[in-house]
Amino acid sequence: MEELTEFAVNYAESLGAEYAESRFQCDIQESIILKNGIPEAVVLEESRGISVRVLVNGALGFASTNDLTKRGLKAASNRAYKMARASTKILRKRISMDDSDLGSVKVEVKPHVDFDSIDVESKAKLLKEAYKQAVDEAADNKIKIPSCSITLDTWKTEKLVMTSDGAYVHSFTPRAALFTLITAFHSQKGIIQRFFNLGGTGGWEMVKKWDLPKLFKEESKTLSEILLFAREKPSGKTDVILGPEVVGLVCHESSGHPGEADRILGREAAQAGETYLKSDSIGLRVGSSLVNVVDDPTLDGSFGFYMYDEEGVKARKRVLIKEGVINEFLHNRETASVFKIKSNGSSRAVAFNREPIVRMANTYLEPGDYSKEELFEDVKDGIYIKSFMEWNIDDRRFNQRYVGLEAYKIENGELKERVRNPVLEVTTIGLWSAVDAVGKDLEFQAAYCGKGDPMQGIPVWTGGPHIRLRDVTLGG
Amino acid sequence: MRKDEIPLYIVDLALKKGATDVAVKLHDEQHAMIRFSNNEVTVSKFYNESVINIFLMIEKHRAATTVPLSSARNAEKAVNNLIKIAKITPPSELYAPLPEGPFNYDPKLLKDSGISLHSERLIGHVEEAINSALEEGAKKTAGTLDATKEKIILATSGNVHATQERGSLEISVRAFTSEVSSGHFVSISGDEENFDPSEAGRTAGKIAVAALNPQSGKPGKFTALLGPLVFADLISQVGIVSSAFLVDIGQSFLIDKIDSQIACEKLNLIDDPTIAGSYGVRAFDDEGVPTRRNVIIERGVLKRYLHNSTTAKKHGVETTGNAGLISPHPWNLIVEPGEKSFEEILAEIDRGIYVTNDWYLRYQNYMTGDFSTIPRDGMFLIRNGALSSSIRELRISDNMLRILKNIQEISRTRTWIKWWEVDVPTLTPYAVVRDLNFTKSTM
Known about the structure:
The complex is a heterodimer of chains A (476) and B (443). The radius of gyration of chain A is 24 Å and the shape is globular. By secondary structure, chain A is α+β, with helices and mostly antiparallel strands. In chain A, strands 1, 2, 3, 4, 5, 6 and 7 form a 7-stranded mixed beta sheet that branches. In chain A, strands 19-18-15-8-24-21 form a 6-stranded mixed beta sheet. A 6-stranded mixed beta sheet of chain A has the order 11-10-9-14-23-22, covered by helices on one side. Chain A has 2 domains: 2-229, PmbA/TldD superfamily (PmbA/TldD fold), CATH 3.30.2290.10; 236-474, no CATH class. The mean pLDDT of chain A is 97. Chain A contains 10 helices and 24 strands. Chain B is of the alpha+beta class and 443 residues long. The longest helix of chain B has 17 residues, at 119-135. The model of chain B has no long low-confidence stretch (mean pLDDT 96). In chain B, strands 7, 8, 9, 10, 11, 12, 13, 14, 15, 16, 17, 18, 19 and 20 form a 14-stranded mixed beta sheet that branches. Chain B is built from 10 helices and 20 strands. Chains A and B meet through strand 2, strand 3, helix 2, helix 3 and strand 5 of A and strand 1, strand 2, strand 3, helix 2 and helix 3 of B. Strand 2 of chain A pairs parallel with strand 3 (61-68) of chain B, so a sheet runs across the interface.
């Protein structure tokens, strides 16, 4: 594909583009869908094509095609060029790319066990066993699992990015992800549901490590106990300990998204919205000095892993909030140029036919120095929220709501009875300012982050340690 | 081999290799998108793709693949691989053979209405929308214009070989008068004639102007007047979760509700892709079954789920022509109109809240329907039948089934809605819902 990718760059330049970028991307995916323990279907998907992005008189044009011939690429380049040129009619500020150092490199993540070396039957058998464990565990507690959907996706991505200013990045990345919705039912206690994801970069060895039968048994046990024993929804002012699953989501929603430079510039205003942060918010205090939120694409094995972004810029750890103060935004080359800085490698696209835009990768709260016991022992009367089901946040990333699923009362430093659906409905600054202790543990969860138009669900990890919030008002 | 012969060729090939049922869909799409913000174009995009979807069964063993057209030209390899996969895939719950044709399709639904993808014309639509919003008093605008032409060639082992062409136009405009005051509206159409980017811009601009100087809203239960963007978000959820597949996997609050009164008697919800020129027009589904007008809710009673042949067999009913080969889905939702105008239903509300838009709808429990969503853009207090002041920072935290039952009024005025938040085109009125629960941040 190198010849065609290079051809697209050269041809777009020959049309008169001041910048041209071409990306070949091939994703080959296998999905196994299990509905209530029975395979619904096996779905194989091959997405293969090339995109061309150009700057013409400061206007940005993008075109993609899966017609992988020189004729197809000429047509795509012509279209990108013509659309960009036509749009200069309503263009006030010229778009440009920063002068980041660009990679010339090949990056390959090699799986220890290739997905193709495990047959579909064995994969389906593993999922069926996980489902059986969930059902059996629930039955032991006289709980039914009336419905359970499990989807296991395994896929390999090859990308080749070339730009007219010299980037050459060829990468190979295998990923796996599991998505589950489990419903637990008790005739007197009602219905609850749990939605959870696993995901990472690597081969089948990663899926084996997830130990799905054990995980499903544990999840089913927890759901059963919530149904049977959880008491009324807590409310009022209290101390709250949030588990890593919730902390990771908070980091993603209320630190990662508001710090995306394209949002700050208003580019996403009609879709995912804007942000409470402004161009000059670097240095703004948004939380206690214990809050350090980072985004790091280079974490080994992570779902959001990459070493070079879609514009050829080398990835690095980004410190979004440092000691409670806004420290850095997420940038691609376009936004970095506006801010007159260098891109920090945040440009991502989910497929060949999607425009690269500013995205998170693996966003998490950096661990502190409290053990879990130390976090709890200083809480006289509080609530521990370990997992969540419902959540959302406004389009300025300021007012958010997290509804706990697995949650407990804390009395005199000890975990007591389960409580049902505590609601944490708070502002971003209110939440981060209430943090008075940060654990030294660190866990990650997989998710698909939605942004862009057309929507791009991109693999990310969210994570963090346990944290303690003081004097939080639960309710909602 | 000509492109339109490929699906039938692959069907024959797969049958020879041992498949009992095969459906092959060739999907050709040309899609132009112009995104704008701060009153200027941010990027213009064009997608040109041809993909082949192959779905096959060896009785209860099912497998599917999507490949680029270029790969499908090497069809034998793709089919061999799929047959191999199907053979070792454990059996599904049941075997429902693909529906047997040939079928007759309404020729009016098969032809593209002639949407233009010409760059200058598309830029013109964007310019119209921006200028209309600015003329109303907006300071800045953002949005997306989409123009799509697609061709679907379907062949199945049930004697189906059919071609559908369709086109669509869609514009979504958000207008701002301040950092926290905005309005949003859309225009969508299956033809050029009914596409009105100016009106979308004007409406967004008017809402943004009215939304100036918002005060922080107070939480509680209020009579709510829901604008078409909000009601479309809620009602399209009802349409989506009426998929029998989602019912079966616990992702629907409509489980066990057939023939139950789930909504106010004033609510009639229909899925109807047989309206020529409408955005969601479709002549046949992914199994080749002719689409039809399906009543989902009649006078508040849930009448049916949406089916493909597999879910239909499981539920002991006929397919409704809504395949999705794995999960059936609605094509083109319609809420039947009420009798009163927007002004009349507003005049009847003494104290309430008018919500013009929402986003980020998430469930606490799909089966009970507990959820929340966040109003965005203009939101207004209603006092004595008129809008009194602009408010912000509230969240709708309620239950889908309770909301459906608490619908008090549905307007005569309706608008086709589809945008980033609402996936399924939905012809939507304004609706009044009593005792809608609003919450807000506690700190």
